[in-house]
Amino acid sequence: MPLVKAGHIVEDRFVRVLDDAPVPEGAAVVLPAARLLADARELVLRQAPTGVIWPNDRKVAELAPYLDWISLVALVFPNFRDGRAYSQARLLRERYAFRGELRATGQVLRDQLLFLQRAGFDGFEVTKEADAAAFAEAVRRYSVFYQPTGDGRASTLTARRASGAAGAVPSRREYVAG
Questions:
Q1: For 45-71, what is each residue's pLDDT tens digit?
Q2: CB-based burial label for 123 (10 Å; 0-12, 13-18, 19+)
Q3: Of 39, 92, 115, 153, which sits 20 to 30 A from 23 (CA to CA)?
Q4: What is the mean pLDDT of the chain?
Q5: At 175, is the pLDDT very low, low, confident or very high (cuts 50, 70, 90)?
Q6: Do 55 and 68 touch, CB atoms closer than 8 A?
């Protein structure tokens, strides 16, 4: 499955490990949620990056105690109508300050790319090569946003106010008073 990160199609360095398979030493691995939670004491001692595939029907609060040593959280979109992973992404980025890779997996569609980015995703597993190329190009397309969200980029209003620009947008109070 193609992986898009930072506007480029890249090779996935993480190896998926099934529930009962041994965890390879020295390799970056991504584990199912149940396996990570069951073996957390041993996994925290690993010298290689560890990630988790987190289903959208589990609370991310369960994952919070492990976020300091997890390198990757892959959130699952089981179908295009189920957007719970958007909320999980925002919680991970904003409430739990997760700074590792946040990957969208499952039914990840090109129409959703901008929304995925704005929610805080920075890696995208796509099913088709053509979608991978479209994702890689679209990641670089937009640089200015009006809405504040979980991706860490300032909205235009916040940026204008922070720069103290002469053309800054006045507050509502200034409009009413003027």
A1: 899 999 999 999 999 999 999 999 999
A2: buried
A3: 92
A4: 85
A5: very low
A6: no
Three-state SS letters, 51-76: EEEECCCCCHHHCHHHCCCCCEEEEE
Question: How does DSSP assign the chain, residue by residue?
Answer: --EEETTEEE---PEE--TTSPPPTTS-EEEEHHHHHHTHHHHTT-SS-EEEEE-TTS-GGGTGGGTTT--EEEEEESSTT--HHHHHHHIIIIIS---SEEEEEES--GGGHHHHHHHT--EEE-S-HHHHHHHHHHTTT----SS--TT-PPPHHHHHHHHT-TTPPPPHHHHHH-
pLDDT tens column, 9-24: 899 999 999 888 999 9
Q: Give Cα separations from 101 to 49, 65, 70, 145, 156 (angstroms).
A: 11, 17, 9, 22, 25
**124 vs 117: CA distance, rounded Å:** 9
